[in-house]
Amino acid sequence: MCIALFCMKGTNTVKVYKPCPCPNHVYSHRHYEEDNEWGCGSWFEYTLVVVLASVLLLGSLGLTLFWVIQYRGGFAWREDPKRQFNLHPVLMVAGFITFSGFSILLYRICRCCRRIYVKLLHTVFHALAIPCVALGFLAVLDSHNLSQPPIPNFYSLHSWIGLVTMGLFAIQFVVGFFSFLILLCCEGATAGFRAALVPIHASFGLTTFVLAIAAAVSGLTEKALFTLGDAYSEWREEGIIINALGISFIALAILVSFAVRSNTLKSDVKVAVADHM
Ligand code: HEM
């Protein structure tokens, strides 16, 4: 399957995203062939990063659920705005961290699948995040507006970071979805355009994930100060759980960024160049 245009000059093959500036260039296509010639070190790095990140992605969602059920009274809908709020952290973590994190990691986990299936799964995971984020946002809006007296909206740094994250996520999803659709419609004719989009989509995707972590950490701090007040400094059990959650989010930001940037973990491909000369 071809994804990117390459410019061949002599024995060098250079990936290009737009018309190549060099003279006598010849475009070619890259074909996917998994490079499975990995050494022990690479497999160790792969297993460590993938297993640790997966454990943290699921574990942090589990710990958020545990915290909210055990210490914050569980869930409710509009009949109890205080407990309705509890849906906010759980759904935001599920959507923005667990689903989005796995969606990004898929590109590193699935080394042997065809790229089209990985893209499809990537889209499905992000699509699953949408209802979580929408309901999580509605839960916090409701819990503010239905409180007696109502709590003001969008005054905190956390809410601003959250809004930026949601905006970026929406743009990323729309752009990614349409580039995926045009891939299905006219693969060959749009290869250059889609290849140009890849590094932009990847950078903004990682940025959105890291911003979601910043939102989650600032939200946790805010909630700890609102609910525990001075007791936060007394090493209460709940405070320790909140801190552990925050640290697991930070660890995820480090691991997922590492996985995305690491040259070892990138699905290396052997480039089979069709000679057009
Ligand atoms: C992970 C992604 C998250 C995003 C994108 C996000 C986004 C938002 C937004 C936009 C608001 C403003 C709602 C309003 O003012 O009506 C808000 C409020 C709030 N969020 Fe989050 N949130 C996230 C995670 C969390 C987490 C994990 C907690 C932990 C408890 C949390 C705690 C709060 C609190 C206490 C408020 C109400 C006070 C305020 O407006 O700052 N959030 N969130």
From TrEMBL:
Q: List required co-factors.
A: heme b
- Indicate the segments forming the Cytochrome b561 domain, all copies: 52-261
Task: Show the GO MF annotations.
Answer: metal ion binding
- Asked whether the keyword Transmembrane helix is assigned, the reply is yes
Cytoplasm as a keyword of this entry, yes or no, is no
Write out the transmembrane intervals: 46-69, 89-108, 120-140, 160-184, 196-220, 240-260
The record's keywords, sorted A to Z, are: Electron transport, Heme, Iron, Membrane, Metal-binding, Transmembrane, Transmembrane helix, Transport
Matching entries from PROSITE patterns are given as: CYTOCHROME_B561
Q: Which GO terms describe its cellular component?
A: membrane
In which compartments does the protein localize?
Membrane
Its placement in the membrane is given as: Multi-pass membrane protein
This chain's protein is named: Cytochrome b561 domain-containing protein
